[in-house]
Amino acid sequence: MVRVSTALLNEVTAIGLTKNVSETLVAHLSKRPLRGPDKTGRLVGGEAIGASFPIKDGLQWTPEQFHARAIKNFSIQSPTTANYTLTLYVKSQKLLDAHRLFDEIPHRDVRTWTTLLSGFCCAGSSSNIVLDLFRSMQVEGVTPNDFTLSTVLKSCACLTSLKLGKEVHGWILRNGVDADSVLENSILDMYVKCKELDSARILFDSMEEKSTVAWNVMIKGYVNDGDMESSMNLFQTLPFKDVGSWNTLIHGLMRNGRARTALELLYEKKLGPIFNEFTFSIVLCLAAALNLLDLGRQIHSRVIRFGSDTNEFIRTSLIDMYSKCGKVEIASSILGKIPVGCEMVPNYKMSPGELSRQTVSFSSLISGYVHVGDHESAFRTFRAMIYSQAMVNEYIVTSILSACASTGVLGLGLQVHAYIQKVGHKMDVPLRSSLVFMYAECGNLEDAKLIFEVEKSSCVGLWTSMISGLATNGRGREAIDLFECMLNEGVIPNEITFVSVLSACSHSGLLEEGGKYFKIMKEVYGIKPRIEHFTCMVDLYGRRGQLDEIKQFIYQNGISNLASVWKSFLFSCRLHRNVELGNWVHEKLLKLIPDDPEPYVLSSNLCANDGRWEEAATIRSQMRKRGLRKLPGQSWIQLKNVVHTFIMGDDSHPKSLEIHAFLDDLIGRLKEIGYSPDAKLVMHDVEQEEGEKFVGFHSEKIAIAYGLMNTGSRMPVRVMKNLRICTDCHNFIKSASQHFGREIIVRDIHRFHHFRDGKCSCGDWW
Question: Which UniProt keywords are listed (predicted)?
């Protein structure tokens, strides 16, 4: 008797039969064979004549409904109907029900076996299930056809089951199957995907007629194995190169770090009419990788002419290309209008479901905003994604954490960390590294350490993030100790690690240690010093006042063409008030970077500090003649999710009068405990009292005053600044931390300063 599930009986009942009648029908199915569908698709035979399939009331029937109807019409025993029902179950991925029906079919032909085999293959089932079915088929005396064998081989390829693939290939050879091109390609594809390239090449060479598909399979096999020479040689001998051949090789060259060769091959292709949508996406990725905006724009125009600009895959590639080429506004316009803040604008058309499908596009857009420094737009886009309940992946989270680190917006960084925990993102090493970096760059070393110490890791990036965090926060000795611990754990440092270590030595004045690590970087680890390493060493010599050693170091290492080392040299001259040497360095910089305002500002300040007002005025005049302007000092502070920005002399803040009154009063109180404004820092020949007014309203002082006015007495005040903090502000904040008994944290362009009880974490080595 044919067995039937409760669900199936319910379906029978749903189409008008009682449970008792349904069970009776099931019990007698084997005795009531029907002839199956006629030419019009209607099942005929017995009492089922006139039954229509597979449409019911204008809607497609489910496999269960079709199966139930076949039972009612006594047609389930027809091979055609049974096979069709089995196909419905397989296409619906209801393999358990399909297998049950398969077991109940009395006469199973090659189509029946192949249908079930293909279902398990497409679902990625284990090779054992597929092999057992294949063997059982032969035991039952059913001879597999070419399509059956291709299906099994496809499963072997998908599951990279070389053992099963060889068994099937052996069966084909033993039974003398005359394989057509499709079957031969299936065997070839199986060997390639199982990384058995030698066997694949033997089979390929033995083929009498090689289709373009076979050529492309071999080329892709070499590409995936990283053997680009073999793939290119094979490509050159290919008699007919279709669009798939070009796509495979160009994409492979890109994946294997040979983007320039891919570009040459692309021009050899002459951008002809054989482009398809995948080609467009590949070339756009190539333009993004090489930062070739002109090429990207040419491809964009072709995309529009071909009418492919509505393709989601190509739109994503366009967004990625424009974002990586710095044209984020164009990328944003392609994606669509972004919601402002947390409220959807009325004409915003994308639904949350559509936003979820465009996660990759948003990821490219956000990383593009971060890359060009438009962090506010990155934050706005991220908030829009959260509000729209779009899927936020780890790449987006990492980009936002990078933006938080760059701007020092700890509040948003904390919210992002909470979001990560809420949605359950896997806390893998890259994400932990990003969190460590964010907390450290926002001056919160305690939380950075907690995340770093969750578990030991051999990832150099995680160690480097923590070492860098300690360095920028004035913990030079701790950074060096952690570096030594890293070496003891067997983690191999890279060039970025050494930048962090040398920076730690520089910020803490550790000249001997810095020289030691610079030496072992070259001699032990074979790392060629980059600009950042040389600049750290020059800065380290300068902080210790060894200016003559800087000259010797620059010429010994052949780096006199690097403007950054001369800038560091000039700052050291200013720090130690060596005007003559500073003027000499300034002349060197004028030859290298005549249109950079920073050397003029440093030299002018150097002369002003020494009372050489005429020389300072001359330098300022030269600067004006070149049309150069000093970057204005800017400081910002985040309070209650709002970022307040301050610039010296800017009264646009709604509470400017209150802030200035508070700051005037504070400076007066700090003078009573020893603070003395340094009027020599002013670039003008003015009286002491007037000079004090100039330095008294630097942007960081205003931001700190606002923070002290609007935070609790035990809360730390966190301020960010776009330039290096000046000596007067440094002394002012030390006195303010002592007066209020509060921690004040300032991050300038180079490092963090943690002020507590009248002292700074930098130890005055800034």
Answer: Repeat
Question: 594-633: string of b/e by CB count within 10 Å (b at 16+)?
Answer: eeeebbbbbbbbbbbbbebeebbbebbeebeeeebeeeeb
Distance CA 309, CA 304 (A): 5
What is the SS3 assignment for 78? coil
466 forms beta bridges with none
Handedness of CA 190, 192, 196, 202 (dihedral sign): positive
Cβ–Cβ under 8 Å, residues 451 and 415: no
**Beta strands in 491-589, from DSSP E residues, in sequence order:** none
Q: Are 63 and 7 contacting, i.e. CB atoms less than 8 angstroms apart?
A: no
What residue type is assigned to position 614 of the chain? E
How far apart are alpha carbons 236 and 215 in whole angstroms? 11
Structure tokens at 180: 């057509």
The pair phi, psi for residue 141, each rounded to 5°, is 85, 15
The residues that bridge with 760 in the sheet, in sequence order, are 755
Strands (E), 477-545: none
Average pLDDT over residues 393-422: 89
Sequence-ordered list of residues with C-beta below 8 angstroms from that of 533, at least 6 positions apart, any chain: 495, 498, 499, 502, 518, 521
Distance between CA 309 and CA 295 in Å, rounded? 16
Whether the full predicted model's pTM is greater than 0.70, yes or no, is no
| Burial per residue of 421-457, b for 16 or more beta-carbon CB atoms within 10 angstroms, e otherwise | eeeeeeeeeebbbbbbbbbbbbbbbebbbebbeeeeb
CA dist list (Å): 279 to 207, 252, 283, 298: 29, 12, 6, 13
What is the tens place of the pLDDT at every residue in 194-226? 999 999 999 999 988 888 899 999 999 999 888
From the number of C-beta atoms within 10 Å of its C-beta (0-12, 13-18, 19+), residue 85 rates as: buried
How many Å separate Cα 294 from the centre of its chain? 24
> What's the 3-state SS for 244-268?
HHHHHHHHHHHHCCCHHHHHHHHHH
Q: Quick one: what percent of the chain has pLDDT higher than 90?
A: 31
- Identity of the amino acid at 295: L
